[in-house]
Write a structure and sequence with these properties.
Strand content: under 5%
Number of helices: 4
Shape: elongated
Largest sheet: none
Radius of gyration: 23 Å
Number of strands: 0
Number of domains: 1
Length: about 90
């Protein structure tokens, strides 16, 4: 994560500190959250929102092989498992 500096008026800084204390989170977390809301809102108005933007916090939260979407072996394994599962079911 990169670091930036932002100058804030005293009143805004006080409100940020109070909100962080109230929610028991860091001031940086509130600033990041606020920027994401504003930037995604502006992108939505222009129609530039992607699926990755909407699923932002979910991306990368699932364990699995890093090449799941490009390695055909995983697809073949899933097809074979599904086929084997169907055979076991009595009709």
């Amino acid at each position: 994560m990169d670091t930036i500096s932002v100058k804030l008026p005293g009143a805004l800084r006080d409100r940020l500190a109070a909100e962080a204390k109230r929610r028991n989170v860091t001031q940086s977390a509130i600033v990041r959250e606020s920027l994401e809301q504003v930037l995604l809102g502006a992108a939505a108005e222009r129609g530039d929102v992607t699926c990755a933007d909407l699923a932002g916090q979910l991306v990368g939260s699932v364990r699995g092989p890093p090449d799941l979407s490009t390695n055909k072996r995983y697809l073949e394994d899933a097809i074979l498992k599904n086929h084997a599962r169907r055979r076991k079911r009595p009709r």
